[in-house]
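Students often ask why inverse folding is considered easier than folding. One informal answer: many sequences map to the same fold, so there is more than one right answer. In these notes we will look at a single instance of the problem. The structure comes first.
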């Protein structure tokens, strides 16, 4: 019963622990305005479709699943949308096989529990409970890395919008509309668990894919700002041609995140050499450094870079 009042000791603890890391802003819930904010404040180029569907899901209190290849902005875009929606920083939970309710809801301080018992005094609230209590968003990153048990526990919370802490005989309920959930996943990663049908039925799925040539140029401009002028446009286009070719041929598929790292490094090298412009030599040097992530891909990356830049 006492779950929604501020004098609850767990609620107090949550604000004491997490209050200083959660910043507050003005919530933005208009999709077109949100797209502008994502671009101007977060330097993220986000397809209107992604924002429209996500906000529609949030208005219906439904969780959203961002699916797509690595480096396409799922994590950063998810965190930014949740933050704008709630007007407060979102919590990010990076999943792993051994994630469980103790890591995300709360656990007991072993020494305090020994002397005082398993009660409110020894309970340490964790991010998912904190997000529910503070009414802010949660990004559950790489959900397929977590166990089926963890996913089932999440489903229950997502469906009922409440968290039960049996040891405390307490139930905490959603307080407002800020508590929304975005999950991310890379369905092409065969090393990971499948998501259950029950899970997929409850979430609104949004597919992420690699950007078009024009979009990837836009992303580079947003991220490098004035530094992008160090790289002649024809070479920028060749960089994107190279990464697009590698996306089809290598084990490690470079995402836009890698294109950004590549361009950033190339500009740094050119600046260090006091050059006015980035040339082919710097692009090949930095390309090899950024794009070769394993032995199998080494030859393909080299051949691709030489082919694209020598033309
Ligand atoms: N649409 C985009 N707008 C701006 N930057 C992007 C975009 N997509 C990818 N990036 C680049 O990739 C990084 C974010 O990738 P990330 O969110 O980790 O991808 P994912 O979670 O899909 O693996 C950004 O820091 C930026 O360099
Ligand atoms: Mg990610």
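Output (designed amino acids):
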């Amino acid at each position: 019963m006492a779950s929604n009042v501020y004098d609850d000791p767990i609620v107090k603890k949550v604000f004491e622990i997490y209050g200083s890391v959660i910043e507050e802003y003005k919530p933005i819930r208009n999709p077109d305005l949100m797209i502008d904010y994502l671009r101007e404040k977060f330097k993220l180029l986000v397809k209107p479709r992604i924002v429209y569907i996500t906000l529609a899901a949030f208005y219906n209190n439904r969780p959203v699943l961002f699916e797509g290849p690595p480096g396409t902005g799922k994590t950063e875009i998810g965190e930014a949308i949740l933050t704008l929606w709630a007007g407060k920083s979102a919590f990010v939970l990076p999943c792993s096989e051994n994630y469980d309710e103790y890591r995300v809801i709360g656990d007991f301080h072993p020494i305090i529990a020994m002397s005082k018992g398993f009660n409110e005094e020894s309970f340490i609230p964790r991010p998912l409970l904190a997000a529910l209590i503070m009414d802010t968003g949660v990004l559950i990153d790489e959900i397929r890395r977590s166990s089926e048990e963890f996913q089932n526990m999440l489903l229950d919370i997502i469906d009922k919008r409440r968290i039960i802490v049996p040891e405390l005989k307490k139930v905490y309920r959603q307080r407002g509309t800020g508590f929304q959930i975005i999950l991310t996943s890379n369905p092409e990663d065969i090393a990971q668990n499948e998501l259950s049908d029950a899970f997929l039925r409850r979430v609104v799925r949004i597919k992420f894919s690699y950007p078009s040539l024009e979009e990837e140029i836009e992303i580079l401009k947003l991220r490098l700002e004035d530094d992008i002028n160090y790289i002649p446009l024809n070479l920028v286009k060749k960089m994107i041609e190279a990464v697009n070719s590698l996306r089809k041929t290598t084990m490690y598929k470079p995402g836009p995140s890698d294109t950004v790292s590549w361009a950033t490094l190339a500009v740094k090298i050119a600046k260090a050499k006091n050059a006015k412009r980035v040339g082919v030599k710097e692009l090949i040097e930095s390309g090899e450094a950024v794009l070769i992530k394993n032995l199998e891909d080494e030859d393909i990356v080299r051949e691709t870079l030489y082919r694209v830049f020598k033309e």
